[in-house]
Amino acid sequence: MRTTGCTIFFLVALCLVSTASAFNAFCKEGKKCETNKTIAQIFSEQDFDTLFPQRNLPIAHAAGFWNHYEFIQAAAMFEPLGFATTGDEIMQRTELAAFLAHVAHETTCGWSVAPKGPFAWGLCYKEELSPDSLYCEPSDVYPCVPGISYHGRGAMPVYWNYNYGKLGKYLKKDLLHRPDWLASNATLAFQAAIATWMLPVRPKQPSCHDVMTGKWVPSKNDTANSIYPGFGMTINILNGFVECGHGDDIRMIDRISHYLLFLDLLGVGRDNAGPYTGCGLQKMLYTPFDKS
Ligand SMILES: *[C@@H]1O[C@H](CO)[C@@H](O)[C@H](O)[C@H]1NC(C)=O
Ligand SMILES: *[C@@H]1O[C@H](CO)[C@@H](O)[C@H](O)[C@H]1NC(C)=O
Ligand SMILES: *[C@@H]1O[C@H](CO)[C@@H](O)[C@H](O)[C@H]1NC(C)=O
């Protein structure tokens, strides 16, 4: 059921590749289509509830935790850096849809015939339940604190000591000692997610933000590997080793389906999803053996 529905979404996405005009090309030339609207001005509490309508049901694992206010508080730290404040209002909403689609995919507890549909269940979790590992890898820079578990926590869940260490350094919070803060402070959890989106995840790669705002231009080597700007590249950055390069991966399709729905709900419309929404044809950007 779910696979079939998603496959249809995916085919729609593929069709868009050939028909869509250059991805927000209009704004690439710079400031002329800038708006100065804040995220709060284009993304209301009601919009947040529309995208995440089921998050506070008693069966949701993080009921009462996630809210619009703390998202806006967290986003304020990154608005001056261009997070969802770059380009025209369509680009602002498109970046929000893309970012929140990944958040929803990572935190969903939806299923194919779930009430309100499979993509209405984002922000159901704030933490990985029953982790089977401490996610500790020996590191000189970000050594594990004995007894502390670095399992997935947050809105775009953070795993491993070195990722907690890196984000903690950036956010000036000692996440190496207190990774649990990402499951007890929604503002901090959203900040960590937006930081993941704004910073390159690995050296010599663009950030997801740079991809979605048209700032990243692929090299000849990239295009030779079918790597182009679009939502699919953000999947490749975040989890390409698992989801990209082998056709219709179901996790990739779930991300795309959330993205298309969120574009509709935010008034952009899935017809404006841009080309290359998937990464099934892209060479994966990294393997787990590349150390960042
Ligand atoms: C945005 O703000 C900058 C700096 O205050 C200003 O120079 C620019 O004209 C504003 N742009 C628009 C579209 O209002
Ligand atoms: C939650 O995190 C935010 C952002 O880092 C911080 O300003 C705030 O004081 C924290 N709240 C609590 C209760 O620790
Ligand atoms: C070319 O791109 C592929 C895929 O991203 C990457 O694995 C490879 O390292 C790149 N080669 C060079 C020379 O940059």
From TrEMBL:
One GO term (biological process): chitin catabolic process
First and last residue of the signal peptide: 1-22
InterPro entries for the chain: Glyco_hydro_19, Glyco_hydro_19_cat, Lysozyme-like_dom_sf
Any one GO MF annotation of this record: chitinase activity
Keyword set, alphabetical order: Disulfide bond, Signal
Gene3D superfamilies attached to this UniProt entry: 1.10.530.10, Endochitinase, domain 2
Active site: E106 (proton donor)
Ranges where the Glycoside hydrolase family 19 catalytic domain occurs: 43-272
Disulfide bond residue pairs: C136-C144
Protein's name according to its UniProt entry: Glycoside hydrolase family 19 catalytic domain-containing protein
